[in-house]
Please model this.
Amino acid sequence: MADVVLDKVVKKFGEAEVVAGIDLTVRDLEFCILVGPSGCGKTTTLRMIAGLEEVTSGDIRIAGQSVTWTPPRDRDIAMVFQSYALYPHMTVRKNLSFALELHKVARAEIDRRIAEVAQIIGLTPLLDRKPRQLSGGQRQRVAVGAALVRQAGVLLFDEPLSNLDAKLRVHMRTELKRLHQAVKSTMVYVTHDQIEAMTMGDRIVIMNGGRIVQVGTAMEVYDHPTSRFVAGFIGTPPMNFFEGEIGNGSLALQGGVQLPFLREGAKPGRKITFGIRPEHIYLRTRENTGRVPATIEVVEPLGHRTILTARCAAGVLQLEAEAMPGLKPGDAADLFFDLPRAHLFDQATECVL
Ligand SMILES: Nc1ncnc2c1ncn2[C@@H]1O[C@H](COP(=O)(O)OP(=O)(O)OP(=O)(O)O)[C@@H](O)[C@H]1O
Ligand SMILES: [Mg+2]
Model:
């Protein structure tokens, strides 16, 4: 049992408050992703959980026990860093056993754990090699293995895939997910890559400016973003945004674009930001859509789908069409916005309406 609770955790560096009082419960055995733009406080939060950074105020509990003033080695955690350091002169086996030897774990137990972990992450044939004899992905696996052999209740990862090339990242994403199913640890995983965040974890914690702005499953934060920030941060290509105002039974977007307004409750005159995802703009009319004339500017085939960049009176937007939409740059096209699937945000607060 190793749940992790952050209770009003604040971190200041001098006058600068970089973690601004966050509350979070990571459940036992959960794979929890912390995601957000550079500088939002992800690493600092992880380092406070690890005990590598003191909290300014607030409390951190692991498995129900306050660890706020517990030294890192007594916290039942293991951490994989962004720049994972392997000892270059030691074999993989020695890299894995090193920390356990320091902790005076018995030899037989060390050998047992290494065999088990090497099996799980596919290092068995590599145990007698030195780090320079390994590929980037293999080295990364050794770094993960070195954390796993500690058998900590909580595993912390700080952007462990950021040094790998694109293909290997995708592969390691799947591997880490598989790993989570095989080991009995709670995992907290930091990334600034929203695709990693969407695909890997049970729940995503989205941070911005030292605060948690939304917590949920991938589909919850994708389908129901509570703020313009989250709506724009999650999803590729990103959601399209247009400024506008609520009218009487209509929405007036920038550039004179008028859409029928199908939602109750918002007062005419209210300034809003209209958000619509690329896959909710169609090339043919459907029920509850609003027609917007546009000109195609860029066509990007992805194989199974095609991304179109188009210009309408409200501005430039992107939509996702079927593989062969039969359009080329310069073509005129009527676009149809799926209005029930659009998102409205208050312009001033940026919160969802
Ligand atoms: N030791 C430090 N002293 C002063 N400021 C720091 C220190 N460590 C981090 N900061 C500042 O705290 C803020 C949060 O940093 P942090 O490393 O937690 O961000 P991050 O979300 O991990 O970003 P990235 O995605 O770039 O790794 C940044 O503005 C950073 O400059
Ligand atoms: Mg960081």
About this structure: Residues 34 and 316 are 31 Å apart (CA to CA).
